[in-house]
Amino acid sequence: MKLLMLFLVFLKIGFIGFGGGYGMLPLIESEVVGRGWLTKSEFWDLVAIASSTPGPIAVNVATFAGYRIAGVPGAVLATTGAVVPAFFVILVIAIGLKGLLKTKEAFWVLSGMKAAIIGLLLMAVYSLYSAIDVPKKIVIALAASSFTMVFLGMNPFLTILLFAAAGFILGKIGII
Fold first, then answer.
1. What pLDDT, in 10s, does the model give residues 69-94?
2. Domain spans of the chain?
3. Phi and psi (nearest 5°) for 132?
């Protein structure tokens, strides 16, 4: 029964989880932590592992969570449940609904989904922040570096170099 429930939960997540893997993390967390299958700390440990392995984060999290919850059969069923909806959506689009996406109604639907995706991503950031102990200085540096890349259009590599130099200088003079 647990295996069937695991498959159905990840199937549901696969159907409603638009916006990429990071957008799906709050949905996955809500389901697996809410059902008591994993603790919040265990979930975010799995996210850290899934982030460092090749492949889509949502698929990796589904696989690792399924394995942690019910072994190899759980990993297979959770992964299958998470992937099947996207497979069929892409299949249907490829077969003939491409023209539908050019309508103004589809534009409205996709615009609404974009807003929801941004909310899900912000929820993932907040949930991760609340699950770990992060010094305020790190959060400020992360926000500042994100701002320079997103709003000022700075190259990520240059941003890393700039903030590494700033960290070194601020450390030398005793601010950090």
1. 999 999 999 999 999 988 888 887 77
2. 2-133, 134-176
3. -125, 160
Residue linked to tokens 């491409």? 98
pLDDT at 36 over 90: yes
- The C-alpha atoms of residue 63 and residue 35 are separated, in whole angstroms, by 17
pLDDT attached to residue 18: 67
CB 66 within 8 A of CB 4: no
Q: What is the mean pLDDT of the chain?
A: 85
Closest CA to 67 of 41, 46, 52, 84: 46
C-alpha 19/C-alpha 15 separation (Å) is: 11
Give dist(CA 125, CA 134) in Å, integer: 12
